[in-house]
Automatic annotation (TrEMBL):
It comes from the Bacteria. Residues 31-59 are annotated as: Disordered. It holds the Pfam family CsbD. Residues 7-54 form the CsbD-like domain. SUPFAM superfamilies: Hypothetical protein YjbJ. Residues 31-43 have a biased composition (Basic and acidic residues). Belongs to the UPF0337 (CsbD) family. The lineage of its organism: Bacteria, Pseudomonadati, Thermodesulfobacteriota, Desulfuromonadia, Desulfuromonadales. This is CsbD family protein.
Amino acid sequence: MKSGIRDKAQGVLHEMKGKVKEVTGKLTDNSKLEAEGKAEKMAGKAQGKVGEVKRDLGE
């Protein structure tokens, strides 16, 4: 698998995991878990964007 496609896929996975953590944190009133989820979701979005750029550059 090309690097850009792999980064994009991993970014989507991290976004989904982050969303689950964020929602779980809200439901359980666990602000630490909610913050971890938001951070992981943001990191996943960034990784996805890196993957898009790599794909556009042909890597």
